[in-house]
């Protein structure tokens, strides 16, 4: 682990949250002058088979979260070319446990939110809905504090992987992730259910608040995936806000879609089984993300 102090925050690089080498490390950014900061954990995308924690650096304006008093951690996890599901979710939960166990060391308050995009959105949503599910906890890094989280932001993530069996861009990635060499259609129904965040809403435990964002011109992951998750969270009496970003593709966080001029949007909000309220405000921005996380992590 290396620590570097810069204007406004301290960076802890390559922090080992378990003993599995380069795949089980995270970078942690802690704002200066903030005592007991809440943590936003970023989970990278890449079809579960590519990418790493440096993806965060390619999102314009992400450091604004630091200036608003949040610590931000970006995590690596073992890619699907080396290990199959559920290894990845076990590692995400290990990183959460590590940050919570070491809150005093880094000046954190122990309250944790997740933010993921694409494949990282699936992992964030799954970690959010599967609090206490034994098969998804694993023993990476050892057992310890809870891996439950207080809020989830899922941008363009898939939910029902079985529905992607015929998706020409994703079917191979999903099959590799789940360890089904003959394609998604060869995966067992039990495995597909286990990997679906919606499955775990049936436990009766109220899910953490969710913020969902998806472009309606996404050619990679159909926006219908986020609509499914929104509907399921509403039925589970969760608190959820769903941003449909008109004309935006899969990569909007990297191409200024969270910055002015903000894309046209439809915003649906549902709380505790109430019928959704539809509006066009607020925009999906870093200010909106910060307000969401502040409401649930402070």
What would a concise description of this structure say?
The protein is of the alpha/beta class. About 25% of the residues lie in helices and about 25% in strands. It contains nine helices and eleven strands.
Approximate strand percentage? 15-25%
The portion of residues assigned to helices is 25-40%
Output mean pLDDT: 96
Beta strand count:
11
Unreliable residue stretches: none
Distance between the termini: 28 Å
Radius of gyration: 18 Å
Globally, the shape reads: globular
Major beta sheet summary: 11 strands, mixed
Instruction: List the helices and strands in order.
Output: EEEEHEHHEHHEHHEHEEEH
The number of helical runs is 9
Topology overview:
Layout: E1 2-6, E2 9-16, E3 25-31, E4 37-43, H1 64-67, E5 71-75, H2 87-101, H3 103-106, E6 108-117, H4 119-129, H5 134-137, E7 151-155, H6 171-178, H7 189-194, E8 210-215, H8 224-235, E9 240-245, E10 265-270, E11 277-279, H9 286-297
Parallel strand pairs: 4-5, 4-6, 6-7, 7-8, 8-9
Antiparallel strand pairs: 1-2, 2-3, 3-5, 9-10, 10-11
Helix pairs in contact: 2-4
């Amino acid at each position: 682990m290396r620590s570097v102090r810069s204007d406004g925050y301290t960076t802890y690089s390559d922090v080992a949250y378990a003993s599995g080498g380069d795949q089980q490390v995270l970078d942690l950014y802690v704002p200066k002058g903030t005592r007991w900061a809440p943590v936003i954990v970023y989970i990278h995308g890449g079809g579960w088979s590519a990418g790493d924690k440096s993806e965060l650096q390619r999102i314009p304006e992400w450091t604004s979260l630091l200036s608003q008093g949040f610590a931000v951690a970006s995590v690596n996890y073992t890619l699907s070319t080396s290990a199959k599901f559920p290894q990845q979710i076990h590692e995400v939960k290990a990183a959460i446990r590590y940050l919570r166990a070491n809150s005093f060391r880094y000046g954190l308050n122990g309250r944790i939110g997740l933010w993921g995009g694409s494949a990282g959105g699936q992992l964030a949503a799954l970690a959010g809905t599967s609090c206490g599910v034994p098969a998804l906890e694993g023993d990476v890094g050892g057992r310890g504090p809870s891996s439950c989280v207080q809020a989830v932001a899922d941008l363009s993530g898939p939910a029902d992987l079985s529905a992607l069996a015929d998706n020409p861009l994703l079917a191979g990635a999903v099959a590799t992730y789940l360890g089904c060499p003959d394609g998604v259609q060869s995966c067992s129904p039990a495995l597909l259910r286990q990997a679906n965040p919606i499955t775990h809403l049936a436990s009766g435990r109220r899910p953490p608040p969710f913020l969902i964002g998806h472009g309606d011109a996404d050619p990679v992951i159909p926006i219908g995936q986020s609509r499914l998750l929104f509907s399921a969270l509403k039925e589970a009496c969760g608190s959820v806000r769903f941003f449909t970003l008109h004309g935006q593709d899969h990569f909007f966080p990297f191409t200024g879609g969270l910055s002015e001029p903000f894309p046209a949007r439809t915003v649906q909000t549902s709380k505790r089984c109430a019928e959704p309220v539809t509006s066009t405000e607020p925009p999906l921005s870093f200010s909106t993300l910060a307000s969401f996380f502040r409401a649930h992590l402070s």
